[in-house]
Design brief:
- With 193 residues, this protein is mainly beta.
- The protein has a single domain, classed as Sandwich (Immunoglobulin-like), CATH 2.60.40.10.
- 0% of the residues lie in helices and 44% in strands.
- The protein has no helices and eleven strands.
- Strands 3, 5, 7, 8, 10 and 11 form a six-stranded mixed sheet that branches. A five-stranded mixed sheet has the order 2-4-9-1-6, with no helix packed on it.
Amino acid sequence: MAGLAGCSGGGGNDDPSSRGPVSIEEVAFAAGRPNGYGEYEPQPDATYGPDDVVWIYAELSAISGEPVNESDGANRSDETESGAGDGDGDGASSDGDGASSDDDGASGAEETIVDVDLRQTLRVEDPDGALVAETTAEIQQTLSVRQLDAFYIATDVLTAGTPAVGEYTATITVTDRVSETETTETATFSIES
């Protein structure tokens, strides 16, 4: 599995560390790799063929961030690729989960910069309820506080071998370590021959 995480410019400059609880606002299935926040082609009826790659897209809200002290020089990264976008919506990705921004944050005004610390877990069960995929990704990104209002994650589920025909259940759990909150959503997709 591979994934993306990212955001685009948003609004509020409220206290970024007291936001929350984190929530998943939308879960959708995409026909291909999402290009950014709200920029994906929905998969009709969330139905895929046996050789298709299933993309699961989720929009998050109320993400918290720990303000970065400029004297710390704090820019952290995990074992994932991350970066700020240049406004073209390309985002960044990696073999695990990455993080990207669809907005470079250049507004000329002084902005609060925060460290985001999320954990995303995805579980996929086949039509018989057997676990066929499970992944956990750490998303640690330094962003402007206004980018917290438009954050998304997208993960592809690669089917190994010939998947069983039927309805699959995907469960996404996101933990925000800054606000110490967690949210879980479940959605279904189908594989047809």
